[in-house]
């Protein structure tokens, strides 16, 4: 006989918690009580839900657990950035990155174990795809990193393509932004994407979070060499979609642009990028390439990056050079690889 696997309560929406109540014979109002314990008080055990009766807690424990899991490992950078390893898919654990910056603290969360997109410059993409993370696993990263309660922002820029696991990502966003959940403003959340057009449309229509688009080259054939998804979702088509949404007021659109020496860092590229994003009200984040194993490409020099930024600014595009954080612990952009799971 096998022991029944307990389902986690974290990662469930209020409607799903009501279904749990119905299943175990609790009144519907108990769902809000559970949500408060899970997301506001952040309990780790069902027995801590003390406004539920002993009988109710016993019924819940027959099929459910809170589902909180502590990090499996951590690494701390000399700049204060911290990387945490969490249980992921059967073949691959996943990483989250905590980035303190003055009165801000941002958590970069993963949405998949590995990635299907196969971008040539990304360590995650080189691992292949090992599985989707559940909404519980995504929310657990937010709730279970040390200093969780200091977080001011969450960015879906860790392992995986968020729009390729959209149901779980949107459920996690709902939990983070609804009053019965964490109660955050959507302005505290940014979702990064390679440009999955249908996924982006659903994300834009169904949430109010900020969007970041990975561009890396304004030229289709060149981008395709870096990001094979250009074949399925051409960046010009992505920008055409984005022009249909308002990014001039509450919601923000960012363009992510990794810079490689002699590849995409000359004036021609800057002018083409400015033309590509015209009419989107987007800001450009210029990112130094972080060299990964066996990659022959090298980062652009600081002087070239400054020239590129200034050229964009001169054309009315707000462009900044993103500070590199956590490179010494392989926590910087493009460096997350998780860890291969050992056979149990």
Question: Could you describe the 3D structure shown?
Answer:
The chain is built from eleven helices and 15 strands. The mean pLDDT is 94. The protein is 30% helix and 20% strand. The chain is an alpha/beta fold. It starts with 6 loop residues before the first strand and ends with a strand. Helix 11 (302-314) links the parallel strand 13 (283-288) and strand 14 (319-321).
Instruction: Give the distance, in angstroms, between the N- and C-terminal Cα atoms.
Output: 20 Å
Percentage of β-strand residues: 15-25%
**DSSP helical segment count:** 11
Which of globular, elongated, flat, extended, rod-shaped describes the shape?
Answer: elongated
N to C succession of SSEs: EHHHEEEEEEHEHEHEHEHHEHEHEE
**How many strands, what sense, and barrel or not for the largest sheet?**
11 strands, mixed
* Uncertain regions spanning at least 5 consecutive residues: none
Structural class: alpha/beta
Structural Rg: 21 Å
Portion of residues within helices = 25-40%
Mean pLDDT equals 94
Number of strands: 15
């Amino acid at each position: 006989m096998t022991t029944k696997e307990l389902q986690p309560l974290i990662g469930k929406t209020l409607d799903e918690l009501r279904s749990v109540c119905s299943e175990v014979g609790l009144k519907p109002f108990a769902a809000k009580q559970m949500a408060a314990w899970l997301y506001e008080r952040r309990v780790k055990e069902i027995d801590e839900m003390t406004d539920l009766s002993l009988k109710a807690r016993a019924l819940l424990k027959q099929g459910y657990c809170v589902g909180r899991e502590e990090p499996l490992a951590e690494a701390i950078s000399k700049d204060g950035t911290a990387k945490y390893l969490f249980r992921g898919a059967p073949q691959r654990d996943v990483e989250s990155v905590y980035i303190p910056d003055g009165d801000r603290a941002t958590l970069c969360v993963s949405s998949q174990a590995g990635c299907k997109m196969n971008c040539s410059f990304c360590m995650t993409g080189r691992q292949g795809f090992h599985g989707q993370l559940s909404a519980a696993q995504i929310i657990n990263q937010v709730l279970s990193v040390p200093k969780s309660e200091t977080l001011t922002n969450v960015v879906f820029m860790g392992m995986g393509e968020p729009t390729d696991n959209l149901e779980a990502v949107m459920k996690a966003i709902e939990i983070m932004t609804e009053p019965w959940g964490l109660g955050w403003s959507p302005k505290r959340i940014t979702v990064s994407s390679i440009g999955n057009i249908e996924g982006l449309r659903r994300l834009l229509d169904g949430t109010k979070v900020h969007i970041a688009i990975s561009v890396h080259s304004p030229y289709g054939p060149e981008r395709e060499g870096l990001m094979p998804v250009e074949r399925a979702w051409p960046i010009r088509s992505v920008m055409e979609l984005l022009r249909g949404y308002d990014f001039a007021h509450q919601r923000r659109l960012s363009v992510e642009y990794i810079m490689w020496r002699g590849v995409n860092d000359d004036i021609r590229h800057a002018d083409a990028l400015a033309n590509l994003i015209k009419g989107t009200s987007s800001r450009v984040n210029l990112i130094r390439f972080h060299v990964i194993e066996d990659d022959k490409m090298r980062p652009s020099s600081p002087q070239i990056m400054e020239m590129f930024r200034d050229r964009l600014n001169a054309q009315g595009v707000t462009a900044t050079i993103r500070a590199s954080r956590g490179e010494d612990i392989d926590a910087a952009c493009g460096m997350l690889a998780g860890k291969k799971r050992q056979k149990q």
